[in-house]
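It would be a great kindness if you could assist me with a short task in structural biology. The full record is reproduced below for your convenience:
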Amino acid sequence: MAMQPGSLFLATTAIESSWNPAVAALWFVLLAWCAPAAAQDTLVTSAPRRAGPDTLRSKPPDQKTPDTAPSYGLETAFRSGHADRGFLISDRPVFQPVVWVSRRGTEFSLWGNLALADATDGSRPEIVEAELTHKYEWKSLSIAPATRMYLYHDRVSRSNSRSLEAWLYLTYDVGPITLFSNHSVDFLDYRGGYFGEAGVESEGMVSPGVEIGASFGAGWANSTFNDYWAGVAKSAFDRVSAEGWLTVHPTPRFYIGTCARGTCSARGISC
């Protein structure tokens, strides 16, 4: 088992508000300018960017808007590195903006990863990812199928790749604790590659405007996924991860946060 380096980020601007097409369009242009990327080549022990807990949460958890009112938001983050589903993509600082628009349970998000320095293996991964999700809720259960497309570009080696994935996000609230399980299947780059994870998460306000949270989870994958990312054609239990975060809300539409994450990954352990 190998311990991957922890990741730190600072989320600087997250805004959610009633719909304003002109402002929303401006944010999309800004995001595209800040993170001109495209998703990735596999031989860098890299993986296509985020898998649920590996990325920014896409809204301030205490913010609610009417189902009929469209909303939008923006987050920017600086991280000490980037990993996806237990696979290290970059061990150097990265800038990661994400913008979203949602209405009536349907959300479209656009995320980017811009490497601020060459990784130790010489790569400089730039990634762009678009995701469309629709969430169904019933009592304490939520089910959210999603389609995700990612593009990868390495400025150093000039390698490029792209793919399309189907995702299923499941959560179940049990008092102050949320049980989650996320599942993905690739349909293009490594067709049939499956990854799943499950865990527990809890967060709450410790004082007005200050929130803390933590999560613990484990992930597994089939032989196609592991052969593509790790070069081991076996179904395996891939990782155990723990994460903690602190978020400060100076105003209802602005928050600043920091996060620490540790991932212990295993390669080639048959399930």
